[in-house]
Write a structure and sequence with these properties.
This protein is mostly loops. The chain has 2 helices and 2 strands; from the N terminus they run H-H-E-E. About 11% of the residues have low confidence.
Amino acid sequence: TAWNTYSTQEECCKTAFRGQVSNACLCSLEDKPTICLRPTSRAVTSTAVTATGVGGAGSYYRDYSKGWGEGTCINDLPLPIQ
């Protein structure tokens, strides 16, 4: 493929959006890391979500339809045109 793919959404966020100040990608994870929680909330450890869900692409990739600050990783089908 012409784009990088990752086996988990978390791996995609940590690699494709490394340095993202807003943490939008990491905060889009089902189990949000502590950096996304309000100070009064209890800490939750992030766990990897694999891309094997029904209708998923089988891997995660950067969603180029969003700007860097709002960017997330998706596993939607159909895959983007290469």
